[in-house]
Amino acid sequence: MLVIIGYVVVCVGVFGGFAMNGGHLAALLQPLELVMIGGGAAGAFLVGNNAKTLKATLGAIPTLFKGSRYTKDLYMEMMSLLFDVLSKVRKEGLMSIEGDIDSPEQSPLFSKYPSVLEDHHIVEFMTDYLRLMVSGNMDAFQIENLMDIEIETHHHEGAAPAHAIAKLGDGMPAFGIVAAVMGVVHTMESVGLPPAELGILIAHALVGTFLGILLAYGFVGPLSSLLEQKLEESTKMYQCVKVTLLASLNGYAPALAVEFGRKVLYSTERPTFSELEDHIKKSKSK
């Protein structure tokens, strides 16, 4: 929603200011300029990215028009789930959760938290390392190192769409210049026309440069920044799980291990100690 509002503000600010200055908005309506800029940028985008990046980028774009799913409620659900799992481990031993981590969809523990269960990647991350803890063949240092590598891989893969869109935006001013040069060439071919008509052709050519810059900095470029912010939010989920599981592996009680995880969250989504404690109590009563 904020993306659409931002686009409206950009259009009102740029085109509204132009109209208030006495400009004619119809002069800016140049479909052929948009075809040259958009077509050139799309072609370069296809050339500069492999199929995996293209697929990831196309999949990421719709998420930009939705609000963030990483809310305080989601974090509290995830930490309540971690508390339940670690409490079961402490009471009944590591082997008691083997069935839960092998089939989290059928697990009574995981099914209490549908919002977490919807995120296949975070559930897989959590269950994979709980499985390693059950195996008992790796110490905390080895698991932490492996977690760091996996989180880095997740971050690297998630950054590909943001980088692809950023490069697309960086190239649009150049394609705007290409469109403008094509317009100038057309103008020079028509040098025998009256000055009034030549002025119109020159104005059309300059619109290409304008549109290239506007699309780059007003529409495409901000999307890459937003994708990076969303990636940072998703990475924070993994860090929270990592810190909580490592605290448990180092011998801390479930309540204290979850507190370790709570501390790594951003302050805007981090629940207070009392909020988390109340949420865990309510989840236990279900």
TrEMBL record:
Parts of the chain that traverse the membrane: 6-29, 171-188, 200-220
Domain of life of the native organism: Bacteria
MotA/TolQ/ExbB proton channel domain location: 124-238
Membrane topology classification: Multi-pass membrane protein
Listed GO CC annotations: plasma membrane
Gene Ontology BP, a term: proton transmembrane transport
Coiled coil: none
The UniProt record lists the keyword Glycoprotein: no
Protein family: Belongs to the MotA family.
Protein name: Flagellar motor stator protein MotA
